[in-house]
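FORM 12-B: Structure-to-Sequence Request
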């Protein structure tokens, strides 16, 4: 079946609110139609309120870079799905490798965040991926399968079809290295098979799977030409309007 591509820029800890506003003003009227591709920017929490307002009426969608799994409570410094829903945020990145490595994110908290996101009308972008040691040791299948299986635990099939999975080989994030398009597609196809095993082929055929890891306008075309890669989660190349729009143009082209 044909799946609509999704390109999401993950800004990480970059841009002031003013800089984020200027970026969205520069791209919002230039992104392709939402009939062709879902164009998403994931911004720091401080900018989300402004960006949702800026992007209103356009085909640009706004994502959070993280979300807590509780609705409220004594969780200093955290942001709840209730708060994001109230702002009108549409997506939330969950389980990014940086969150796993530096902020104690686990497969269990990833699952809790997925369930909480759906409860508050947020589409989760779930990140999975192996380290260089795990890839070279031939363990990537078991690592990725475990991450996907735990992330989808308790998610009903109708919601599962809406999950976006971002395959990010950890060794390719911010390093300038990138998996070959064939290698990336092999893992994305394996992720789809894992979803099919958890649900069925119909659900698996609907799930969109992104590749993330040093994606650039020059490389995205080869990735999107693959059978099981439905888009990209992009870091550095999403920080400049021209580069972000070039990524989207590759989808149109």
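FORM 12-B RESPONSE
SEQUENCE OUT:
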């Amino acid at each position: 079946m044909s799946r609509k591509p999704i390109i999401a820029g993950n800004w990480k800890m970059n841009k002031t609110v003013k800089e984020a506003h200027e970026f969205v003003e520069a791209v919002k009227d230039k992104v392709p139609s939402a009939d062709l591709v879902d164009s998403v920017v994931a911004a720091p929490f401080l900018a989300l309120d402004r960006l949702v307002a800026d992007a209103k009426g356009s085909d640009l969608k706004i994502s959070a870079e993280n979300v807590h799994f509780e609705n409220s409570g004594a969780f200093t410094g955290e942001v709840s799905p209730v708060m994001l829903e109230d702002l009108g945020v549409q997506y939330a990145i969950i389980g990014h490798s940086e969150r796993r490595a530096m902020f104690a994110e686990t497969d269990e908290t990833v699952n809790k965040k997925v369930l909480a996101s759906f409860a508050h009308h947020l589409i989760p972008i779930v990140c999975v991926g192996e380290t260089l040691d795990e890839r070279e040791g031939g363990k990537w299948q078991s690592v990725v399968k475990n991450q996907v299986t735990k992330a989808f635990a308790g998610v009903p099939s109708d919601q599962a079809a809406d999950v976006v999975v971002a395959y990010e080989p950890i060794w390719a994030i911010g390093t300038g290295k990138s998996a070959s398009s064939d290698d990336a597609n092999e893992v994305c196809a394996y992720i789809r098979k894992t979803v099919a095993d958890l649900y069925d082929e119909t659900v698996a055929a609907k799930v969109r799977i992104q590749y993330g890891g040093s994606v650039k306008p020059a490389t995205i075309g080869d990735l999107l030409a693959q059978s099981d890669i439905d888009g990209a989660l992009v870091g550095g190349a999403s920080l400049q309007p021209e580069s972000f729009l070039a990524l989207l143009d590759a989808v149109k082209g």
